[in-house]
Amino acid sequence: xxxxxxxxxxxxxxxxxxxxxxxxxxxxxxxxxxxxxxxxxxxxxxxxxxxxxxxxxxx
Length: 59
Prior knowledge:
By secondary structure, the protein is an all-alpha fold. Helices cover 73% and strands 0% of the residues. It has helices at 4-13, 17-24, 28-34, 41-58. Helix 1 packs parallel to helix 4 (41-58). It is globular and about 30 Å long. It starts with a helix and ends with a helix. The mean pLDDT is 96.
């Protein structure tokens, strides 16, 4: 499975994948499809930043 680091980071932070998609301005189904192929380093950094922000908001 691709992008395990993103999936694990989101799970550990209590952030749902649909929340990341919403923050990126895309449909959750589109984000799920994008997860099937490895993201570039730049895209991963953006996603990790979104995960950090969403986990701060949840607290």
